[in-house]
Amino acid sequence: MNRVFSAFLFFILFACTDKKEKGLENSVAETIPTRQPAEKPLDSALIQWLSYYQVDNPEFTKDKFRLTETSAITYSPSNVIVLNQKGFNEIYKPFLVFNPGKTAYMDFDSYHWILAKDGSASFEADQQVVLVDLKTKTAKQIAFFGPSFRIEEAYWAKDSTMVLLGNTYEKVPFMLRFNFAENTKQHFQYPDTLKFEKPYSEIRMQKFGISTE
């Protein structure tokens, strides 16, 4: 009887100890921070824009841009013709920047240039940035720039967030981030000037077969 009782007592003690150890393991596991998801890869349009200027400016990176202003988005009427509507010029179609859900697109080309008879682009001094809602087929101006500023590229971070990549006459790059869900616009400025002979905007147009000379 003593041997049986001793074996039974040992089993009870072992089970309790094992349960405590497992409880301790679970408690420790809960205190270890879970691994954070990897940062979202840079958009290909942003990569191309950065890479082009990095050839002569190796230090040019997205991380060096600094937020200088946050404001509400201002919408204004636009006479830019919407895709698939009468009068839309198909020459602009490759330049439209669609959001991931294909419910909207950004157009910063239609107002800014037309195709001349010799096949090259003829530019207006000003540039209008237009948001087109494909559900309602409406176009609204969200930004307007004079000749000292030029939007060179754009991409969507998600369906309701879009980023404009620009440059200035003084060769100082900037970014504008539009959050349409929150109705906010953020202006990011690069802290230095760039060195380059030809702006990225011309390279982008030539990529789609439009001469800028």
Structure, explained:
With 213 residues, this protein is an alpha+beta fold. Helix content is 23%, strand content 31%. It has helices at residues 2-31, 44-54, 200-207, and strands at 66-72, 76-77, 97-98, 104-107, 113-115, 121-123, 127-133, 138-145, 149-158, 161-168, 174-179, 184-189. The strands form three sheets. Strands 1-12-11-10-9 form a five-stranded antiparallel sheet. The chain has a five-stranded antiparallel sheet with strand order 2-8-7-4-3, with no helix packed on it. A two-stranded antiparallel sheet has the order 5-6. β5 and β6 form a beta hairpin. The radius of gyration is 28 Å and the shape is globular.
Order of SSEs: HHEEEEEEEEEEEEH
Number of strands: 12
Low-confidence stretches: 1-39
Roughly how many Å apart are the termini?
104 Å
Morphology call: globular
Helix share, percent? 10-25%
Give the biggest beta sheet. Answer: 5 strands, antiparallel
Give the strand line-up of the largest sheet: 1-12-11-10-9
Question: Total number of helical segments?
Answer: 3
Oligomer: single chain
Classification by helices and strands: alpha+beta
Percentage beta strand? 25-35%
Compute the average pLDDT.
85
Evaluate the radius of gyration: 28 Å
